[in-house]
UniProtKB/TrEMBL annotation:
Cellular localisation: Membrane
Top-rank taxon, per record: Bacteria
Organism in which the protein naturally occurs: Mycobacteroides immunogenum
Family: Belongs to the purine-cytosine permease (2.A.39) family.
The name this protein goes by in its record: Cobalamin biosynthesis protein
Amino acid sequence: MTIEAATSDVEVIAAGAAESGVCEYENEPVPPHARRGVLTVAAVWLGFPMILTCAVFGGLIVYSLGFWRGMLAIALGNAVLSGYVGALSYLAGKTGKNFALNAIGTFGGRGYRVVSGFLATVVIGWFAFQTGLTGSVLAGSAGWDARWTALAAGIGYVAVTLVGIRALSVIGLIAAPLYLLLGVTAIALALRNSTVLEAFGYRGGAGAAAMSMGAAVTLVVACFIDSGTMTADFTRWSRNGWQGFWSSFAAFPLANCVAMVIGGMIVALGAASSPATDGGNFLGALIDTGGWLVPVSIAFVFVNLGSVCAHCLYNGAVGWSQLTGHTMRLLAVLLGAVGVLLAVLGVWSQFEQWLTLLGVVVPPIGTVLILDQLVLPRFGIAMRDAGIRWESFGAWAAGAASALATHLWAPQLSDALVGMAAAALIYIAARRAVRRRGVTV
């Protein structure tokens, strides 16, 4: 079978899925008549970070730093995400453009392809990680076969993504309340053998292996920095800039903080079975209790991790659809197949290296975009048209290099924050230099 024939077959599948869906406006701004209210767009973001993975990371942070320092790291990381994602969401609501279309103005008519292609590919790795985690969690908690579970779950997650933005809103409204119900239930079960005061006094158990405050903040930021940078794919549906901003507020700090704090409480109450590796994963405690919690917990895994998988695949599909000219649904099928294969092969086990990559490379991208399109124009420094805007790429490279150097030689600091600061300083200096040379704006 030729590549053209295979692509044609997949297009038929994707077209069938699109018949009852809505236009996704992959290659143009969302028109005013298709925009949605703030609650609808907020629902898309709400169920995204309120996931079991964030409970794991919240538990790891508290295990390393103790309860109160852990809560401080979670708060600081979410404050960074709130400002970062909120600014990009404001831009998305103002323009109606997805991330790729907005990136054209900052990185150039040809240069944006590098940035958009990179992020749209990176986010598929996150889809693969969460799909593989579905199999791993149910293998450890319910004794299921990890690979077959990941395969079946991945196919289901692709099917949800094919419905489009409407499905992301619905699954978010289901995933968030279900997480709250089971998270609070897990804490109530843990309080049978501990007290809240004992949790407040928890000093951590990592000892010499504990992460620094800076590393903990980076972990919070890195957890959602990829889709957070591509937030325009979701919040472009908002009616205006401020509605886009408030829609993202549902995720950062609200949903993400709740998810991480619950995981931290599970560890601080002594209810986590393996806090050094599984953090605040509370699924095992629920299943061990038996009764109605067993089927509900299993359903929770699919809905909860399915939410983040569908969102990530949507990000990747929208990004690559704009680059290739094909529809979002076609790319969802193709990229989803790649992600499911990676999940079955076990790529999800490399999550530490993956988060390091995200924390080092991604934050400078959004920083440059925010400065270029929201901050500098207010001071009369307008964008300039170019095929490749080298000052933007230079700032991105400088920020990533600074973050990597911090990771290697100054682990007490936050890679993500150092990268953002370096990218901002270099970009401002570069734009001033370009302006002095009299380059046409």
